[in-house]
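Two proteins follow. First one:
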Amino acid sequence: MKKYTYTPNSVMHDPSISHSARFLYMALLSFGQDQVSPGQARLAEKTGYSKSTVKRCLIELREKKLISWKRRGRKTNVYTIHPVGEK
């Protein structure tokens, strides 16, 4: 994990994204900038959220086209973090 995380202002200040989804987005970015594969349990541990909240936030971020993911069977999902423009 990196020592700091860059979060785009366009995500940080977007009122259409819930606070919990923004924080989860930052947690994903803390693992890398392009593709990351932390498990949902690990994301729950890092954020202090329940696994159901993590799932809800992941869906919200996908609906906002900020992330997508691929399932890998019994392994953790691979999350792709999509580039965003700055406002």
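Second one, unrelated to the first:
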Amino acid sequence: MFGNKKLLRDGAQLDGVLIESDDGKVLVNAASSYHVKVRVTFEDGTLGEFEDRLHTKDAGMKGIGAVVPVRFDPSDRAKIAVDGPELHRRRETDEAQREAAFAATPEPLASASPSAQLQELWTQKKAMDTRGSELRRTGAPREEVGAWVHESEALDARFRALKAQHPDWAPSAGA
């Protein structure tokens, strides 16, 4: 017989997909958790669905279509739950990877030519767009999304200001 702690420690692992999510209520009510419905496909191809709660500290904001880790009792598939500890670990790993990727993006050199500065800003804008897509896909927390919006807007403003001074500039091939 599996209790919830034992299930999360010893249960079989697989990933599920959110098919319902009340994550919008978190934004409105500043709640710390929200209701989700998860669909799983077991190894034998059978489908299962279950309801659970996601905690924002572990999951961030996960919308419909997000993939979440799941644990279940192979002898009783009715005993199934979202694997909160694994979800938290994945979120921390994703955040660290995003931060490392962003930190590796250099600021344009002030001494570089306007064309080189525009090219670097263009490359950074593309990296920011990719980061934004990743934040949405992984259900990043509001604070992280808000920081991304602020950074993206600042980068876009720098690009537009320099581009206005050099309207004939175009990205180089492969950019």
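SUMMARY FIELD: The helical segments are 4-10, 23-29, 56-59, 84-103, 114-138, 142-165. DSSP finds six helices and five strands in the chain.
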